[in-house]
Every structure is written in C-alpha cells, then in structure tokens.
Design brief:
This protein has 3 helices and 8 strands, in the order ααββββαββββ. The chain is α+β, with helices and mostly antiparallel strands. It has 2 domains: 48 residues; 141 residues, Galactose-binding domain-like (Jelly Rolls, Sandwich).
Length: 194
C-alpha cells in the first residue's frame, strides 16, 4: 500500500509540474505573472547584495550665509570650478539642500574647500569642513569627518523619505594664510540605490 501511495503522490506531483509548464507556455497572463514575480525577486536580491547607485540631484540650496559670488546653489551645480562659501562672521554655517520629492538616500559625497582656476591654491586659501553634522528632514542625523583633500569624499548613509538635508559645519581645516576667511564647499552629491 505504501508503494502505491508513493507512486500516486509522484504521479500527482508530475501532473502538477506538467500542467504548470503548459500553463506557463500557453497562457499569456500566467506567463507574465510568473516572469514578473521572478524578475521582482531577482531585482530585490541584486539590490540587497550589489545595489547600483544612481545620482539624485537637489533642486535648491540655501545657507545661513554666503559670500558674494559664492551662493549656496553653487554647492549643487555639478561644476568643480564653483563653490559655496559662508561669511567669515558665520561661526556655525549651515548649508541646506532640498529635493523635489521624498527620496531614499544611500550615499552623500562632499567635495570640501574652494575651487577655481588654480584649484590647489584656492583650496588652501579657505577653511575646509572637517567635521559635519547631517540632519535629515525625516529626523535622522549623522556625523561625518572629512579628510583635508580637494577630492569628492563619499560616505554611505541609509535614510528614507527625506526632502532636505542640512549640513552643519562643526569644525574646519585651517587655511594656509593667517587672514580669517570663510569655510567653503565645492560640491555636495547624493546617490540612491537602484
């Protein structure tokens, strides 16, 4: 009896498999549903294991202060020869970047310091952010320490559904000269997982 039950069970499983394959091949809605579910599962696994990072751009920028010719918008303009600079009198400068819709951010890139025709000379002439405190519109926050380099420095973050990011400059790398000058940021970039 047990052998007969096993044969019936195997035959039933084989029949289900054959019917499923036929439905997949011959019934377009079933075929589409299976392909969509498999694609969604594979995409979810890829995003978890090896996500693609796509740029997401802020649509506006403001700051507590800006020097003439170095407005907050220049920190998001995607050009490496422009920069935002706070006034010397602003001891706690804040740069705020805004998005058109809520976004999930996976990475932030900050290019500290000033840039210009002679980038290294310009970079050394202004203070550069050393420690920054990020405050996100969803209530999350984090701290980042930047190296004294004029290259973009990317840091992984995982914040959901934000419409703005505040960058509070907490400390700076000192300028090469003794004259007081203003802290500068060349560019701020954001990336999201795809």
């Amino acid at each position: 009896m047990t052998g007969m039950a096993a044969r019936i069970g195997r035959s039933g499983i084989a029949a289900v498999i054959v019917l499923s394959v036929l439905a997949f091949l011959l019934v377009p809605p079933f075929h589409a549903a299976v392909v969509n579910k498999v694609t969604a599962a594979v995409t979810a696994i890829r995003k978890a294991i090896h996500p693609n990072l796509d740029p997401v751009h802020a649509i506006a920028a403001t700051a507590t202060t800006s020097t003439p010719g170095h407005s907050a918008d220049l920190a998001r303009d995607t050009f490496s020869n422009t920069y935002w600079a706070a006034k010397v009198s602003d001891r706690a400068p804040v740069l705020v970047l805004k998005f058109s819709d809520p976004v999930d951010l996976a990475e932030i890139g900050i290019t500290p310091g000033a840039s210009g025709a002679a980038p290294q000379d310009q970079f050394l002439a202004e203070p550069r952010p050393k420690q920054v405190h990020l405050v996100f519109s969803n209530g999350d926050s984090t701290d980042i320490t930047l190296s004294d380099s004029n290259q973009a420095q990317f840091t992984a973050i995982d914040v959901k559904q934000v419409t703005s990011v505040e960058i509070h400059v907490m400390s700076t790398w000192a300028p090469a000269g003794a004259a007081p000058s203003s802290v500068a940021i060349t560019e701020v970039e954001f990336k999201m997982k795809d």
